[in-house]
């Protein structure tokens, strides 16, 4: 059986968590700072739990409750990632998730140590403006991309964080091009995340924005600042280390899709690994030809891409629309004559006979 725990009983959960206490969003849900749900096997004395936060889905404590595990499978959505609190839960991943493509990958957790980049304002070009975010000025931010900043915050009550700096952003003219914002707050502990517009990367803006947010939050009385990123996201952890974060641990998660924040987070070999993973899944469910084709595209393998698109045409022809065939991951070979001829065949009416 599975039960959704009442907020008043959330204090029963911390004792069930052993290895995922680096996820501040769990504490943020428990304290009511951000919305979330907690499911347990027993509301009086829980021994198995699924914790759903805005940042992660965590399973913890007893992994051998088969009835509870079966109910978790109904709660998790097809594309939901999962963080397992123990190796035992990792072995149960296909018992608790309906997506057979769940794949293990590595993440990093950093904590701020000391500000190593304290002269960040000196590196900000005069064409850029750095500004800070507080709850009382959030709605007054009216620039291009300001919606992305406003949508970032999922606090249960924005007025509860009125005394905190919520981050910073950099704009050029009327366009916000980089932002480093608070993900969640629990007392004097926070976690932050960062985004830079793709046209403004590799200009040092991420480091400047991160340093500005960290400096403001420390001045605001924050004692602990956390930072999570995918192990393959070199750009993210390079910024963290430059500003003054230290790696605390590496941990594993499961996802049914490539764990990237940018396409360049994975190299050709890693994209090929994901493509092969999806090809194996097609033996169980044919829905993965599309994902395999896209991954082969990012791996710059035209032949494998075409092979999977042919299979997709045979099993799920409705997916072969112009949007899919113009997918950006196929850009590296869209001018090749073999690809053009292939697309020409695909877009004819007599598709079945030509394939």
UniProtKB/TrEMBL annotation:
Q: Which PROSITE patterns match?
A: GNAT (PS51186)
Question: Where does the secretion signal sit in this chain?
Answer: none
This chain's source organism reads Ornithinibacillus massiliensis
A single Pfam family it belongs to is: GNAT_acetyltran
Q: Does the keyword Ligase apply?
A: no
Transmembrane residues, as ranges?
none
Please report the name of this protein according to its UniProt entry: GNAT family N-acetyltransferase
Q: Give every N-acetyltransferase domain span.
A: 128-264
The answer to whether UniProt assigns keyword Transferase to this entry is yes
Q: Which GO terms describe its molecular function?
A: acyltransferase activity
> What are the protein's UniProt keywords?
Acyltransferase, Transferase
Q: Which InterPro entries match?
A: Acyl_CoA_acyltransferase (IPR016181), GNAT_acetyltra_N (IPR042573), GNAT_acetyltra_YdfB-like (IPR027365), GNAT_dom (IPR000182)
Q: What is its EC number?
A: 2.3.1.-
């Amino acid at each position: 059986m599975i039960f959704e725990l009442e907020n008043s009983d959330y204090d029963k959960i911390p004792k069930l968590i052993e290895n995922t206490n680096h996820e501040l969003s769990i504490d943020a849900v428990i304290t009511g700072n951000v919305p979330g749900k907690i499911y347990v096997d027993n509301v009086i004395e829980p021994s198995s739990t699924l914790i759903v936060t805005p940042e992660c889905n965590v399973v913890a404590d007893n992994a051998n409750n088969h009835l509870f595990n079966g109910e978790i499978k109904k709660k998790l959505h097809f594309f939901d990632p999962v963080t397992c609190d123990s190796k035992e839960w990792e072995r149960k991943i296909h018992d608790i998730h309906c997506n057979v493509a769940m794949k293990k990958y590595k993440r990093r957790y950093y904590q701020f140590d000391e500000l190593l980049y304290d002269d960040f304002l000196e590196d900000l070009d005069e064409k850029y403006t750095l500004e800070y975010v507080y709850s009382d000025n959030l709605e007054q931010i009216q620039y291009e991309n300001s919606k992305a900043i406003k949508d970032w915050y999922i606090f249960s009550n924005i007025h509860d964080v009125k005394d905190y700096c919520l981050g910073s952003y950099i704009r050029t003219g009327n366009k916000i091009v980089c932002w480093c914002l608070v993900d969640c707050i629990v007392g004097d502990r926070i976690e932050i995340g960062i985004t830079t517009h793709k046209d403004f990367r590799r200009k040092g803006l991420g480091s400047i924005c991160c340093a500005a947010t960290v400096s403001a939050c420390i001045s605001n009385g924050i004692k602990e600042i956390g930072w999570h990123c995918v192990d393959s996201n070199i750009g993210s952890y390079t910024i963290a280390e430059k500003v003054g974060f230290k790696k605390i641990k590496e941990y594993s998660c499961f996802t049914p899709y490539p764990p990237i924040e940018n396409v360049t987070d994975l190299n050709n070999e890693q994209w090929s690994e994901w493509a092969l993973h999806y090809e194996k899944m097609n033996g169980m469910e044919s829905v993965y030809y599309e994902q395999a084709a896209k991954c082969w595209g990012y791996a710059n393998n035209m032949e494998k891409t075409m092979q999977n698109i042919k299979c997709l045409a045979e099993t799920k022809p409705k997916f072969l629309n112009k949007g899919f065939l113009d997918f950006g991951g196929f850009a590296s070979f869209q001018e090749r004559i073999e690809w053009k001829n292939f697309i020409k065949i695909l877009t004819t009416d007599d598709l079945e006979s030509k394939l």
